[in-house]
């Protein structure tokens, strides 16, 4: 009998090349450099109305962090998804000048 | 390709209140002949090299991430520094993160859950908390303003291993009281009594506190109730009962529990018997995040659920009733 993962359970860590790709896309969309910290996490969610696996992309800039959740597994996330998710995020110049 | 657990570089978090002996222990780790090349991340010095070790300065950057389902805090500075270290990880056998005496261990631990690059190449081995035997009770009983955390309490609650230092400065009676108070807060952590932080480094650098294959090494004392209760805002609750759990009920209950109480549940660990799963389900968590996997098969062994929660304002009766409510319906006789 196949059992799904429990709520909140973290799936296996993503392959580094996939993490690199998603991180590169976030940097491209926000005009970030290598010095900016970008995290990529895939989480299992069992809440009603949520996708079972979601991908959380975060930019940890002191003073102005921004993160977005894309409701699909990381290997299905496209550049268009990332662009759309961060469309309302503050571009890098503003992030850096934030207090 | 992700790295296997054996190949991942272990990371130890060293925490403890000011004056507990952290610096003494750190100096021992940096100078003793243990054959390990260690990178140390801490808040005190600039970057300096000591023999085979590297000491890197970190500034605590805590970020809260709330994506609706999961709310957690992570350390941005650690993600950046660990990322740099991973690019030269062939040069290190172990990474040690020293926190300030006032640091909350949660963001450090959750950082390992919330970044997949770190999770694929490093493994959090354990949280070691140093405690000053002579001053712990004073720190634990310190009155805090509303909303202000008692860091000494939290550091003990989060620990996989506690180094009870400066035991030469207290008498037998006081030492017993200190040990009892520690046990009230955290039933899972091993306690090592020391003078001048002279603890076997193997007991500090190879803990396996977040290793699911060791999640079941629960001391039988985890079930004991506390007899002489102080103001136990932070406690351990151990639950054990036989029977198979229904996966859907379990998911529903866990979802509600983590959503409502995830902030207050510092750590959790346990083994569950799930109907339809021939193996033990082992898990461990930090606040709302947790890892779980299928462990050893039950075989002929009795299916017994054993769970420990460590946290603030835990309601033992409600937790046990909730978990028991996940029991699967009895299988009708053929």
From TrEMBL, chain A:
Domain of life of the native organism: Bacteria
What is this protein identified as?
Answer: Nitrate reductase
What organism is listed for this UniProt entry? Blastococcus saxobsidens
TrEMBL record, chain B:
What is the annotated signal peptide range for this record?
none
Which branch of life, at top level?
Bacteria
Supply one GO CC term from the record: cytoplasm
Q: Does the keyword Nucleotide-binding apply?
A: yes
Provide the alphabetized UniProt keywords: Chaperone, Hydrolase, Nucleotide-binding
Q: Which InterPro entries match?
A: CobW-likC_sf, CobW-like_C, CobW/HypB/UreG_nucleotide-bd, P-loop_NTPase, Zinc-reg_GTPase_activator
The chemistry this enzyme catalyses reads: GTP + H2O = GDP + phosphate + H(+)
Q: Where is the CobW C-terminal domain?
A: 234-327
Q: Which GO terms describe its molecular function?
A: hydrolase activity; nucleotide binding
Family of this protein: Belongs to the SIMIBI class G3E GTPase family. ZNG1 subfamily.
Full protein name: G3E family GTPase
Source species of the chain: Blastococcus saxobsidens
């Amino acid at each position: 009998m196949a059992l799904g993962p429990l709520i909140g359970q973290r799936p296996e860590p993503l392959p580094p090349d996939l993490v690199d790709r998603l991180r590169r896309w976030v940097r491209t969309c926000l005009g970030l450099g290598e010095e900016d910290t970008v995290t990529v996490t895939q989480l299992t969610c069992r809440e009603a109305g949520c996708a079972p696996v979601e991908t959380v992309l975060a930019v940890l800039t002191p003073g102005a962090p921004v993160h977005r959740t894309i409701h699909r597994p990381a290997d299905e996330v496209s550049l268009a998804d990332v662009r759309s998710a961060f469309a309302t995020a503050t571009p890098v110049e503003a992030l850096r000048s934030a207090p | 390709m992700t790295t296997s657990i054996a190949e991942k570089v272990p990371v130890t978090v060293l925490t403890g209140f000011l004056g507990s002996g952290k610096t003494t222990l750190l100096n021992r780790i940096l100078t003793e002949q243990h054959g390990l090349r260690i990178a140390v991340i801490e808040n005190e010095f600039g970057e300096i090299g000591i023999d085979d070790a590297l000491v890197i300065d970190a500034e605590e950057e805590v970020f809260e991430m709330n994506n609706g389902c999961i709310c957690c805090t992570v350390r941005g500075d650690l993600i950046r520094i660990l990322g740099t270290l991973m690019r030269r990880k062939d040069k290190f056998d172990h990474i040690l993160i020293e926190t300030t005496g006032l640091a909350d261990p949660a963001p450090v631990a959750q950082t390992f859950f919330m970044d997949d690059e770190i999770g694929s190449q490093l493994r959090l081995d354990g949280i070691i908390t140093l405690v000053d035997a002579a001053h712990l009770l004073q720190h634990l009983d310190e009155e805090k303003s509303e909303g202000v955390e008692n860091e000494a309490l939290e550091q003990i609650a989060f620990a996989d291993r506690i180094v009870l230092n400066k035991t030469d400065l207290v008498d037998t009676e006081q030492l017993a009281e200190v040990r009892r108070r520690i046990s009230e807060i955290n039933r899972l952590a091993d306690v090592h009594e020391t003078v001048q932080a002279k603890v076997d480094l193997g007991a500090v650098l190879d803990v396996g506190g977040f290793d699911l294959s060791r999640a079941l090494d629960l001391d039988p004392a985890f079930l004991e109730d506390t007899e002489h209760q102080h103001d136990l805002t932070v406690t351990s609750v151990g639950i054990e009962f036989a029977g198979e759990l229904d996966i859907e009920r379990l998911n529903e209950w866990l979802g509600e529990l983590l959503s409502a109480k995830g902030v207050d549940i510092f750590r959790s660990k346990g083994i569950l018997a799930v109907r339809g799963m021939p193996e033990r389900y082992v898990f461990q968590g930090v606040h709302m995040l947790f890892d779980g996997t299928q462990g050893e098969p039950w075989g002929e062994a009795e299916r017994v659920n054993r769970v420990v929660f460590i946290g603030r304002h835990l309601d033992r009766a409600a937790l046990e009733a909730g978990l028991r409510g996940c029991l699967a319906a009895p299988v009708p006789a053929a």
